[in-house]
Every structure is written in structure tokens, then in C-alpha cells.
Amino acid sequence: MALDLLNHEEELKVAKELNYLLASKYAQEVVNRVANDVISTQLSGGHVGGGQNKSGRTSFSETLRSLNPERIIRKAIRKRFPKQGTVPRSGESVDCPEYFPLSVEGLNIQFGTGTLVDRRGVGRVAREILRELIRRQALATLDVGPACEKPIHFFPSVHWCPSDLPPRSVVMVHDVIPLLFEGIFQRSTIDEWKQRYIHSIRSADLIVTVSESSSEDISRVIGVPKEKIHVVYNGVDVLEWEEDESVDLLTPDAPYFVCIGSNDYHKNIDVVIKAMSLGDARDYHLVVVGKSPRGFSAELNSDNRGKIHPVGRLTDGQLARVLRQSQGLLFPSLYEGFGLPPLEALMLEVPCICSARPAMTELLPGMVIFCDADKPQDWAHAMQHLANTPPDAEIRSQIASRLRGQFNWERSTDLLLSVFNRLKS
User: Fold this and answer.
1) Read out DSSP for 79-132?
2) Mean pLDDT, the chain, as a whole number?
3) How far lies 228's CA from each of 115, 195, 207, 423, in Å?
4) Residue 177: DSSP 8-state
5) CB proximity list for 77: less than 8 A, separation 6 or greater
6) CB atoms < 10 A from the CB of 113, how many?
7) Contact 225, 202 (CB under 8 A)
8) Directed axis angle between helix 121-139 and helix 9-22, to 10°?
9) H or E stretch covering 245
10) Rounded CA gap, 335 and 135, in Å?
């Protein structure tokens, strides 16, 4: 059910002329809006935009006329694809084509669509990549020449690969954490990796991953030659996160730190909870974002009960508010393929304390306080130090600016396309 909305010459001309005449942020916002309409239509099976032409298809021109240039279009995009996303329940079918066809910079790309409905971070990454590829397709000049005839199949997550990969397949592997910590994951998860995902990784023509540490682990644990693995850092975008003060009802009046937890043991939130009962950290509260981790209830029976505040899952705006009102983010994970939360916090100019583990040590040197993942006393001391002597505003602004230049979706897509080009011939 590929609509190919942005493939038509008339619509490409409109996008090209708009980009040339305005040369402004609005030009990109318009294309992003239409790109989002395409993605939404692929997932829902509905029509694109509000009006339709005689063929039953909304044209790019009609979409443009329906837009108000003063609106910030990308806000609507974020609302359409919120942080949590959606994922089908077991046994449910998804009205979504197997591939989304794209022609970008002379490449014939078949984008695997399964990951688009994943509610985890991999789904969000897939949607951002697809949105940027569609934007580039729309703004491309008309004389770039035909795309290569042989398609390149891209799967944004190994979890959504078919049993048998088609020719010229590129698979994104965010991490291999279950294979590194077999003792703390369910047997079913380990079996799925060993019976399905390892086969897909070994069968792929090329592998894309999100950090050098993940690249090393994929090669070492799965036995993939390093020359097949290419690092493409994720983009991180918090510029449009508008603080939502409604979440203030859930946070304490006392000074607090933030920890983003989950049900995964490797998130290691227990070291922070234990630190809260130690002398250096007794004056602070802890706001826990996300699902309450295993072992959490037991810790609440201690002296910490009144100082730990689970707030559940938050929207981007709520998370921005909670972080900016805090003393800082605590990120005690035993391992991360990329480590998105501290990058988001730093771009919001919020200081962080992180465990000295991959990939944080790779991506965040000199920007955060590092602690031993197994020593609560180190975390308690670091919390007191950060609260008493936070980095000044100029330093935080410089760090945020540097990270925005390094981790953005335009740069990520450039790197991804360079990987695709290896299979072009």
C-alpha cells in the first residue's frame, strides 16, 4: 500500500520551489508535515491530508495550501508520534506494508516498516530515520538521475527482520545486552536471540549499530567481521520539548534527582536507591520515571519510602519539566548500546551522574560525573557534590551546543546513506 506521495514530478517541483524561494525553516517544516502524513497513512491505511483530488489522493500543493506558515508544524509531528509510540498486542495484525519504497540520492531503498509500530526506543529511532529520508526525497532535485535498479533493504531493528533476509540487506542492531547479561534476562529472551536474531545478524550484508562499544560486542559475541559493522550514532532532538508544568503535582517540593527506570535489571537502579539512605544523599528525594523496576518495592520498605517518587511514563514536555527542575539526572545503567537519557538531559542543560560503563564512557567523556556502578557510596557523594557545586550555565550551554552538532538526525542519515552506498554497485 505504498502511496509514493512524494514521487510525483508536480509535487517535487512544489517542494523544490518552496525550498528555493523561502530558504527558511518553514520549507523544511512543510516537507516534514507531508512526510509525517505519509508515515501515518502507511500505518493506518487512511488517506493523506484533509482534501483529495479526483484520483482520491491529496496533492502536495493542496497540503501546502492547508498549512498556516506561522505554525510550528513539527510540534504536530511529535504529537503524532509520541515518545511511547504504539505496539500491537500479541496476535494482532498491523495494517502496514512490508516495505516503504524510497528513492534518495540515487539509492533504491526498501525500508522495512515493522519497527515503525514498536513502542520502544527502536521504534522512535526508525520513525525519525524514515521521516528524514522522506524529507530528503521530497527536497531532492529532479535531475539526480535514476536510482540504482537493485534495491537495498533496510531493517531499522533486528527484532523486526524476516526469517530469511532478502539480497542487499542492512540491519540495525542497537545492542546485544541480553547476550552480555544472560543471567539476568528471561530464558525466552535469550532463546529468541540465539534462535532468531543471531541468524539475522550473521546473514545481513552489512550491520549498522549505534556506538563503537556495541560494534565491538557484536563482533566479539556473535562473530561478525568488524568490516561488516558500521557505527551510525542516533540523533537526539529536544529543541521542541516544551515544559509541561502539570507534572509538578507528582514531584516533591524538596530538592530531587531524576532516575529513568525500567523493568530491566541492567538499568541498575537499585544502586541509586541504596545511595539515598546514605549520609551524603539523605537530604535529597528521587523521582523515578518509567515503570518501577524489579526490587523497587523492597527498597521502599526501608527509610527511603517517603523520599522516592515513582511518576510512571512521561511525555517529552513532562520529562523536560521534571529534569529542568531537578538537581540532575542519575543514570546507573550497567550497559547501554547508546545511552539516550543522559544525552537528552545534557541537551536540556541538565547535569548528569552516570555509571562508568559503555556506551556512556564513549559518548560522554568530560561532560558528566562518572561513578562505579556497584558502589552506592560513590553515588551518594557525587549527588551531594553536584547539588552543592553544579556546573555554571555557560558550561552547560556549551555542552548542549556541542552535542546538538554531534548527535542530530541529519548527520545520522548522512552516515546511514554512506553505508547504503557500499551496496549500490
Assistant:
1) HHS-SS---PPTT------SEEEEEETTEEEEEE-GGGG--SHHHHHHHHHHHH
2) 79
3) 22, 21, 6, 12
4) H
5) 32, 33, 36, 131
6) 22
7) no
8) 90
9) none
10) 34
pLDDT tens digits for range 108-162: 999 998 898 887 888 889 999 998 998 888 877 544 555 567 899 999 999 999 9
**Residue at grid coordinates 536507591:** 273
Do 347 and 370 lie in one domain? The reply is yes
In-domain check, residue 372? yes
Q: What is the CA radius of gyration of the chain?
A: 23
Grid cell locating 198 = 543471531
Contact call for residues 101 and 4 (beta carbons, < 8 A): yes
Say if 240 falls within a structural domain: no
Task: Please list the alpha-helical segments (H only) found in 23-59.
Answer: 25-44
Angle between helices 25-44 and 9-22 (to 10 degrees): 150
**What CATH number corresponds to the domain at position 202?**
3.40.50
3-state secondary structure of 292: coil
